[in-house]
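for the writeup, i need someone to sanity check this before i put it in the appendix. the sequnce is what the collaborator sent (i think, or maybe the updated version? ugh). structure was predicted straight from it, no edits. if anything looks off just tell me and ill rerun, i have time this weekend
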Amino acid sequence: MKKGLTIPKLVTVAFILLLVLVQRTPATFAQVSPAQQTGGTLTVALGTEPDTFNVYTSTLAIEDVFINGFYDTLFVEGLDSAMHTKLATNYAVSPNGTVWTIDIVHNATFSDGTPLTANDVKYSYDLLGLSEIDHIQVVDNYTLNFFLKAPYIKDYVLRSIFANYYGKVLPEHIWSKLSDPYSYKNQNPVGSGPWILDKWVQGQYLTIKANPNYWGGRPKLDEVIFDFIPSLDTQVLNLQTGAADMIYVDPSYVATLMGVPNIKMVTTPQLRNNYLAFNLNRYPINVKDFRHALAYALDTNTLVHQVLFGFGTPGQQGWVTPGDPIFYNPNVTQYTYNVAKANQILDNLGWKMGPDGVRVTPNGTKLQFDFLTASDTPTELRTGEFIQSNFAQIGVKLNVVPTTYKTIISQEFAGQYSIAMLGWFSISVEPSVDMRWHFLPGAFFNVYNYNSSAYNALFAQYKVATSFDEYRNDIFRMQQVLSDDLPILCYAFSPSISAYRTDKFQGWVTPVISDDTFQGILNWYSLMNLQPATATAASNTASETMTQNSTAPATSTSMPDMTWVAVGIVAILAILVIAVVSRRKKTS
């Protein structure tokens, strides 16, 4: 005879059921509403238009949003800062640590319908040309062996090689036919990502549509329209009237949008490195003591609080921003504002103050430079003028030349500058990827012409570290070398400030870390999760506003949705009550 469930067994079953419910409670995407809606067109107003979708030559932060949507990597950093598989499904490492076997998904296709295979992965990594890879072997359509030059530690391999921002998997059948892949504008991208370029009317707008065949599941939105609107006043007006659903906000416009119904503002980590770029091929900029004097002459505290309206923190040298919770070194050399010390350094160099208030070097060179200043926003213009006034106190004259970031970047690549204002969003899950491209001799973005034997040696050394602590410490030491040499002068780390309407769409993901995937709320996760807002969701968030903090602007955090856990607990209690009552009836 079959026995029924006893009370102890019922308790066990109930406990297991409760665990299952807890495990299934969404945590990573807790901001997504349980009621899944699909469809709709999101409209984003942008001040800057992309120039290229070639991952190797992209220099504008907004281009990363598109490139991340068009292409996939093997691995990706999640919202929890851990590494997760993307195109890769699993991996195995040989006993000697030099051969990594990677399996990839079987159902990925490019947007032209061509299947994505291991040959595309090999082609893309051969084109990328990472120095850590000796060669790659295709085992079959969905398996590769990566033969590395050394047994690099796991964290380095996953972050710097397999989750490398530049390691996007490209379609071999298209790119292999190009005469020069590195100069290809790629304005009609074909990728395996969740988004497809639909239409681009240059100077006006660009539309992307959801990839219905995306192997990872299509986005909930149907399409996103990016309107290119240089005027910040017009962007703000469009957001207020509903013509735009999301914009990036210059600090000078925050007060305008505070408290406006159906509009919410959020900040994300201090991931933007705002700095002065120095052309080290030019005298006297190539004199390190002179750059130290400039660092002491810059009042970064006042700049952040008065010019940036408190959004950010005073710059610290070393490149890595405090938005990086793992590799940021807070203990590099500091250059506290000290005009007397700055003047003393220049006096010691024998650079005399002229009658016009401008110093002159012993060979007759005046400390007078054209200063390429970003004019994309009012705050950037004020920043340029503030720096100009600071340096005038030590006899350095800056001739402010307002221009756009695109112009600044083109002149830097041509070597046609002395000092320029620049900003760089952290784009890598491991900062040495950026540090390689900026500060190694001959690197793509080493427009500073920086070459340090100490830095170069550390860069070669850290890759073969035998422990994570050793590996991170070497990156810390590289930051110290940069802080001493000052090929750039960081004046502020600033957050991304975004504003969006709450009455049309829900599901924005506000990250607590910063890299290429998490550039503000217009990130890969948001674009996958956004969906039409329900009436309840819109009314609950209509009055939300942003809180401002002078050192660490607020970031959104969220807790898992416990609804199903509560329902499960009630159901379990009901089962137990019924069981107890039934048992009593049988024994009475």
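The radius of gyration is 27 Å. Residues 113 and 213 are 9 Å apart (CA to CA).
thx in advance!!
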